[in-house]
Amino acid sequence: MEKSNIVNWDRRGEIGILTISNGKENYLPQPDFVDIEEIKKWTSEDDLKGIIITGLGRNFSAGADIENLNKLSQNEDLLQEKMELGKNVLDFIENLNIPVIAAINGVCFGGGLEIALACHIRIASPKALFAFPEINHGIIPGLGGTYRLSKLINKGIYEILLMVIC
Questions:
Q1: pLDDT greater than 50 at residue 90
Q2: How far is the C-alpha of 41 from the C-alpha of 74, rounded, in Å?
Q3: Mean pLDDT of 41-54
Q4: Choosing from 2, 81, 114, 159, which is the catalytic residue?
Q5: Which end of the chain is more exposed for a tag (fewer CB within 10 A), N or C?
Q6: Burial of 48 by CB count in 10 Å (0-12 exposed, 13-18 middle, 19+ buried)?
Q7: For residue 75, what pLDDT is reported?
Q8: 3-class SS at 92?
Q9: What's the distance, CA 35 to chain centroid?
Q10: For helices 157-165 and 145-153, what crossing angle results, to 10°?
Q11: For residues 55 and 61, is the Cβ–Cβ distance under 8 A?
Q12: Residue 14 and residue 12: Cα distance in Å, rounded?
């Protein structure tokens, strides 16, 4: 098992398991929750046939650690850089040539939902909860989540977003 930032990487045969592991809520301290070079290394093995992304414990991920995000936002250039790095990680996951499955248990909010939307398949427990709570702070999902969501449900995304905002 390898650990990078707040994720653990493990192999079970031909399947890689990336587990978000950061306390009870599995908060993401930064948009680039895993170093892209680490995930490239982990996924480069020829015998890897698929990846499961999940959260340790009761929750997939409650999204951004708001305190850390507020600190990060004090430096606009650094925030923009970190958001771009986070988006690059999710783009990399989305464009992998092997199946990537989000095994969603409990809370899947904000950045956690953006991770799940970057996966090819999402399997949710009956207790899974989904939301983009950042809209309550006057911001939109910053890692491509609304774009990925709109691709999934094609038409109707604007009505859903408007219902959430209003």
A1: yes
A2: 32
A3: 94
A4: 114
A5: C
A6: middle
A7: 79
A8: helix
A9: 13
A10: 130
A11: yes
A12: 6
pLDDT one-digit tens code per residue, 56-89: 999 999 987 777 777 877 878 877 787 788 889 9
The pLDDT tens digits of the residues spanning 125-162 come to 888 888 776 666 666 665 666 666 656 666 454 554 45
Task: Give the Cα separation of 58 and 38 in Å (integer).
Answer: 25
Query: Of 37, 38, 76, 134, which is the active-site residue?
Result: 134
pLDDT digits (tens, 9 = 90+) for 3-40: 666 899 999 999 999 999 988 899 888 877 888 999 99
Least Cα distance to 119 among 140, 137, 103, 135 occurs for 103
Euclidean distance between the first and the last CA atom of the chain, given in angstroms as a whole number: 45
Active site residue 76: no
Q: Please confirm, yes or no, whether 114 is among the known catalytic residues.
A: yes
